[in-house]
Design brief:
Order of helices and strands: EHEHEHEH
Helix content: 40-55%
Strand order of the largest sheet: 2-1-3-4
Largest sheet: 4 strands, parallel
Radius of gyration: 11 Å
Structural class: alpha/beta
Strand content: 15-25%
Shape: globular
Number of strands: 4
Length: 90
């Protein structure tokens, strides 16, 4: 499974989301490759991803992609990430 964690500028916030998603996926026993990306890179990466994790503001900018786009309201909230990823991978 390929997951792309997306933020708007730079890479800092997407790396945080990537790390938190990896923690959650490990606790769920899900084997996935999580990639951090800015919005420019994400448009291409989402073409081959299964899931894209991003904010509500950036979701429309990703465009029409085959990946499931999941809105994360708080990139620090492991409970939110757990809930949304659990639903997506089951």
């Amino acid at each position: 499974m390929k997951i792309v964690a997306v933020c708007g500028m730079g890479i800092g916030t997407s790396v945080l989301l990537k790390m938190n998603a990896e923690k959650v996926l490990t606790s769920l026993g899900v084997d996935a490759d999580v990639e951090a990306a800015d919005i420019g890179v994400a448009r291409g990466a989402a073409q081959t991803a299964d899931i894209v994790l991003t904010s509500d503001e950036l979701a429309p900018e990703i465009g029409d992609v085959p990946a499931r786009v999941i809105i994360i309201d708080n990139f620090f909230d492991l409970d939110e990430i757990t809930d949304k990823l659990t639903e997506a991978v089951n």
